[in-house]
Write a structure and sequence with these properties.
This protein is mainly α. It has helices at residues 10-44, 46-50, 54-82, 92-95, 98-118, 123-135. It holds the Pfam family TMEM65.
Amino acid sequence: EKLEVAPPSPGQLRHVFFHNALPFVGFGFLDNAIMIVAGTQIELSIGIVLGISTMAGAALGNLVSDLAGLGLAGYVEALASRLGLSIPDLTPKQADMWQTRLSAHLGKAIGVTIGCILGMFPLLFFGDEEEKLEEK
């Protein structure tokens, strides 16, 4: 006979949610901030010289951001650990239940969404430069 394992409690699911969300806030923030800064600088320098489109500059900025993300991933995870982000106390069967997987995916999705929105802050500083270029 197989013993039934109780599904995770709401508290455990919240723990799973935040355990997954917090690092992804950092990832989303860094990804968007670096992409915006790199894409803008590429467009204003290489883009003008080579005559590439704004979208090509954005794509190259995304490449720079993705490469930076590979290098910074360990630091984001280390920071999350320093903030006391402990691993949820679940049995292997509980960790594999649909409720746990859903909570983890929602945490990642909401975390990266919040991080990406916060990572848009460089746009506050680029308005003047783009207006000057359009005037020329």
